[in-house]
Amino acid sequence: AASSAHPIRATLFPGDGIGPEIAESVKQVFNAAEVPIEWEEHYVGDKVDPRTESFLTWESLESVRRNGVGLKGPMATPIGKGHRSLNLTLRKELGLYANVRPCYSLPGYKTRYDDVDLVTIRENTEGEYSGLEHQVVRGVVESLKIITRQASLRVAEYAFHYAKANGRKRVSAIHKANIMRKTDGLFLKCCREVAEKYPDITYEEVIIDNCCMLLVKNPSLFDVLVMPNLYGDIISDLCAGLIGGLGLTPSCNIGEGGIALAEAVHGSAPDIAGKNLANPTALLLSSVMMLRHLQHNDKADQIHNAILSTIAEGKYRTGDLGGKSSTSEFTKAVCDHL
Ligand code: ATP
Ligand code: MG
């Protein structure tokens, strides 16, 4: 268990746009909950660091590697040539191979569905995002979809491990192996191999188009979903929409050696930045995922419940949820619920 003698050290990237405001909200809530934590704050630089070929400094990457955990606000990738995108740099340098997004209906915040409780796990390093595109001849281009046994086994292992560790009953592999016989076929083969090691967890395979139809018709059919990169990109946003949008959805990236980098899924929202209007819920819930990863489950539950109570009470809601509260009023309400 945590004690103030051994504080958690975590890297914090407040990020751009609304990032600093919602990061401030997390710091206040952690203070109020007396989480023994020391944040190492890192900002995106204003020039390219040759060691990372991006605006992220080597020191900030080292900080995440050393701490093993971090929380990241939205980062707007600077325009211009000669640098790698920030998210790509983080993904590559930290080996962030799985993106985990829990989606559950928030009590008291009405959407079309009341009973969503699922988790999407997206392979984050290959598939259609390998960046291998070229022109074959004029008027014909080619994009290579790479699926490897190693990356597929790794994400499948994580999905089943997650399911078991979180008391989940079923893992669904999402695919299009009827058409992409080789690539998605290999992905499924790896999922099957891992499934055999987890006899207590039901394993099923669902074709992506059917999966979309079922998710919209009845999301409560699903529990844990694991899938290659592009399908994960699309399905995870679809699932965020089921519960009320990007302002509410947390996520966590899992990397090599047990690194966890939690982040909100929304962008930097330049239209409302600096106005004390942003909803900090997604980043707060992401910070809860970070605490759970560290097995600080008491603090995680406490903060989680305070956020849910504040939203359920309905007195303090930010504009995106139809309310009139500022970021700081909402944050104060969460602290009061602790
Ligand atoms: P970026 O280029 O960084 O992705 P964007 O212009 O695409 O920025 P998003 O952050 O993706 O903007 O947001 C899209 C819309 O959702 C914007 O109108 C924004 O104000 C709103 N929005 C996003 N996140 C939040 C939040 N946490 N609270 C309130 N509104 C939000
Ligand atoms: Mg955006």
From TrEMBL:
Keyword NAD: yes
Co-factor(s): Mn(2+); Mg(2+)
UniProt GO BP: isocitrate metabolic process; tricarboxylic acid cycle
Gene3D superfamilies cross-referenced by the UniProt entry: Isopropylmalate Dehydrogenase
InterPro entries on file: IsoCit/isopropylmalate_DH_CS, Isocitrate_DH_NAD, IsoPropMal-DH-like_dom
UniProt GO MF annotations: metal ion binding; oxidoreductase activity, acting on the CH-OH group of donors, NAD or NADP as acceptor
Entries under PANTHER family matching the protein: DECARBOXYLATING DEHYDROGENASES-ISOCITRATE, ISOPROPYLMALATE, TARTRATE (PTHR11835), ISOCITRATE DEHYDROGENASE [NAD] SUBUNIT ALPHA, MITOCHONDRIAL (PTHR11835:SF34)
Domain Isopropylmalate dehydrogenase-like, residue spans: 9-334
Family statement drawn from the similarity comment of this UniProt entry: Belongs to the isocitrate and isopropylmalate dehydrogenases family.
Alphabetic keyword roster: Magnesium, Metal-binding, NAD, Oxidoreductase, Transit peptide
Signal peptide boundaries: none
Pfam assignment, any one: Iso_dh
Organism this protein belongs to: Dendrobium thyrsiflorum (Pinecone-like raceme dendrobium)
This protein's name: Isopropylmalate dehydrogenase-like domain-containing protein
